[in-house]
Amino acid sequence: MKNLNILSLLVIVSLLFAVQPASAVVSVQNSKETTSISKKDLKKQERMEKLMDKIQKKMDKMESKGIDKNDPVGKWLWFAILAWILAIVLYILAAFTFGAFWYIAYLASLAGTIFFVIWLLKVLEVID
Length: 128
Prior knowledge:
Blueprint: H1 2-18, H2 39-64, H3 74-97, H4 101-123
Helix pairs in contact: 3-4
């Protein structure tokens, strides 16, 4: 039985090597015709522009409050906060599902603590 399993595994692996990879051929034509945009595509584009405007306003508001996303020290505190929020959500989810979320939540809380320690050491200028 063991030899049959090994033989079947070798056959499957050899078949995977024999299969040719698929490749797509895309041809680009130089046409001078203008394509018309459908109303559905136009609405999607308008929604995306509105969404980008909202995101830009929120980024401006964050920067006015003193939150700088490019701050090399402050980013560690944000990583810690996000990791702890993720851990809390996963702990709550694990309480209802009894799954492997306990381990992932534990790792997220551990990562949050490590990020906080790194932030603390950078604020106190112990490390660069």
